[in-house]
Amino acid sequence: MEVAALPTPLYNIISYVIMLVDAKTTAFLRPLALYIRSVCAADFELAPRINSQRIMAKAVIFSDFDGTITWQDSNDFLADQYGLGQAARRRLFEGVIEGTTSFRDGFLQMLESIRLPFDQCVSKVREHVQLDPGFKDMYEWTRREGVPLVVISSGMRPLIEALLEQLLGHEALQQIEVIANEVDVRQDGTWCIRYRDESEHGHDKSRSIAACKQRWQHLEPAPVYFYCGDGISDLSAAKECDLLFAKSGKDLISFCKKQDVPFREFNTFDDVLSAVKRVVAGEASVTELQGGSAA
């Protein structure tokens, strides 16, 4: 659904009320604040946690999760270890790259091969999947500077949130918004992914980002929108942002070159943070950073 823009004064009032709720305000004000949030923020399909930081945002950072924020792709790990295996997975996704099958169908087939109950899937990825070494510093910088950080993923929200909590602490779940697919767990422990939309990727990231951007459209000057990714599903998202960071050695770089999409290559989020700081400080423009390496 399209997210309607609110008049700036009303937007700011709602944001302040939600800030009070998030700050666990007094028992006297909290019921009123909760009621106002439930009424006025109902149309923010992708914005359940509008807060005071987002009124003043100079920049907004969107990022893919698996293989971008994390060192390993959690879904690939599960399929390789407990599903169809690495060789079969690679053959399956050759079809996605060649265009003979959609990402949606290939990803579903891969996930359906995994033979673990979902709670065990969560335990396994928490045990084995590691964070990009620079992401924690960037996360802490966004908190200090009031820069919104939004995960836009073709993966599964419960896995992503479990990893964020494991790697950054429970408070990160209150600070980082996650927009991703859901999971339906059956009574017998089996499970299946529930795609966010009908698109060929199961989650049209460009649609989610466009809806998110409605929150900040009242700002003058407009925030600079960044996106970090590594794969084919990130290409449409990149077109909604001012500067795309593409992870070194991953498929997104080759896709960008084929479709003439400007990007900046990065190795870790230390590189991303350095470049974002330069743009926010006015030391470099987006155009100056495109086409180079953040390393």
UniProtKB/TrEMBL annotation:
InterPro entries: HAD-like_hydrolase_phosphatase, HAD-like_sf, HAD_hydro_PyrdxlP_Pase-like, HAD_sf. Transmembrane segments: none annotated. This is AAL023Wp. One of its GO terms (biological process) is L-serine biosynthetic process. It comes from Eremothecium gossypii (strain ATCC 10895 / CBS 109.51 / FGSC 9923 / NRRL Y-1056). Keywords: Hydrolase. GO terms for cellular component: cytoplasm. GO terms for molecular function: L-phosphoserine phosphatase activity; magnesium ion binding; ribitol-5-phosphatase activity; sn-glycerol 1-phosphatase activity; sn-glycerol 3-phosphatase activity; sorbitol-6-phosphatase activity. Pfam families: HAD (PF12710). SUPFAM superfamilies: HAD-like (SSF56784).
